[in-house]
Amino acid sequence: MATTSDVHLGTVLRINGELCQVIEWQHRTPGNLRAFYQGKMRNLINGKLMENRFRTGEAVDIARVEYKQMEYLYNDADFLVCMDNESFEQVSVPRSLFGDSIKFLKEGMEVKVSFESEMPIMAEPPTFVEFAITYCEPGLKGDTATNTLKPATMENGAIVNVPLFVNEGEKIKIDTRTGSYVERVK
């Protein structure tokens, strides 16, 4: 079994029978008291945040998590069907695992899915995606002086705020973590 010194950011722990991902992990040594680890974790099943204290050297249960690059095939009600690129096995991944970044998915896109004993527990799209703009207000020459944004509709229906100089028909790069405009694609 692992100890608290083996835990790092992003580690998945099994606490009280539930899987939790470590978001913050600090080693604290208060004045004349014993050292301890302060951990902030997110429950992977229901998304709740929790904080725990662990003694230095305390045994913790680190879950074995396998990460796979998969291809997103299609939407099936509350699930997204993804295919393993090596074995061609299709897996249904709950929509809730993708969170808000689900609106930036396109069929055929590579996604990262995490499994714990054949059950998907985490999923994320690529960090940056490229989309064509299907509708936005026309930009005017000289609109690059200010940092003003306007809404633009992407080819998949998502709406992203873009600078005034971006026009309809152009391709842009979007950061899926924040849902923000990054740059124009040539």
Helix and strand arrangement:
Elements: E1 2-3, E2 12-15, E3 18-28, E4 36-43, E5 49-55, E6 59-60, E7 66-76, E8 79-84, E9 90-94, E10 110-116, E11 119-124, E12 128-136, E13 149-154, E14 159-163, E15 171-175, E16 180-185
Antiparallel strand pairs: 1-6, 2-3, 3-4, 4-5, 7-8, 7-10, 8-9, 10-11, 12-13, 12-15, 13-14, 15-16
Task: Report on this structure.
This protein is an all-beta fold. The chain has 3 domains: about 1-60, SH3 type barrels (Roll), CATH 2.30.30; about 65-125, OB fold (Dihydrolipoamide Acetyltransferase, E2P) (Beta Barrel), CATH 2.40.50; about 130-185, Nucleic acid-binding proteins (OB fold (Dihydrolipoamide Acetyltransferase, E2P), Beta Barrel), CATH 2.40.50.140. It has no helices and 16 strands. The protein has strands at about 1-5, 10-15, 20-30, 35-45, 50-55, 60, 65-75, 80-85, 90-95, 110-115, 120-125, 130-135, 150-155, 160-165, 170-175, 180-185. The strands form 4 sheets. A 5-stranded antiparallel β-sheet has the order 9-8-7-10-11, with no helix packed on it. It is flat.
Class from helix and strand fractions? mainly beta
Q: Can you count the helices?
A: 0
- Reported by name, the CATH topology of the largest domain is SH3 type barrels
CATH architecture descriptor text of the largest domain: Roll
Largest sheet: 5 strands, antiparallel
Name the strands of the widest sheet in spatial order.
9-8-7-10-11
In terms of DSSP E residues, the strand content is over 45%
